[in-house]
Write a structure and sequence with these properties.
Elements lengths: L30 H12 L4 H10 L12 H7 L14 H5 L6 H24 L13
The chain binds iron/sulfur cluster and zinc ion.
Zinc ion binds next to α5.
């Protein structure tokens, strides 16, 4: 039988220690959750092929092979992973589903500014009635 750590064992995921942890968020930026994930990776027998796969796929999300996206980005060398918007940015919250405190705050202030500008616009340009006059006249 092929050793599960063999780099080209395409079935390595069958031996993944995270397989029975479906409730853990492997994309979380919360330090406590990240530490839990990393502890599972430390004892995983397919850490090497898992990390290699993430780098070869240029996957910018979550923990793979006990490595964060930043660590993989460094290992990827010149061919960087996709650049993510910084934390605290509304697009990191909306498009990339980050729910860290900074992204929540960034999203809240974006929404606040958007609503304020919409209501100011409404004050300046009152809505025109859909029907001008009485259609039965
Ligand atoms: S190294 Fe971590 S992410 Fe990769 S298969 Fe093992 S437990 Fe899952
Ligand atoms: Zn964030």
């Amino acid at each position: 039988m092929k050793h599960p750590n063999a780099p080209h064992d395409r079935n390595w995921h069958r031996h993944a220690a995270c397989r029975d942890k479906p409730n853990l968020d492997w994309h979380s930026d919360e330090p406590v959750i990240r530490q839990r994930c990393l502890a599972i990776c430390r004892n995983c027998t397919v850490r090497a092929p898992c990390g290699d796969t993430a780098i070869s796929l240029r996957d910018p999300w979550g923990i793979w092979g006990g490595q964060s996206p930043d660590e993989r980005d460094r290992l990827a060398g010149d061919e960087h992973l996709r650049i993510l918007p910084p934390h605290g940015n509304n697009s990191r919250y909306v498009k990339h589903s980050c729910r860290c405190d900074a992204c929540r705050a960034g999203h809240t202030s974006y929404e606040h500014a958007r609503r304020q500008s919409a209501s100011q616009q409404e004050l300046q340009e009152p809505r025109t009635p859909l029907l001008q006059g009485n259609p039965l006249d």
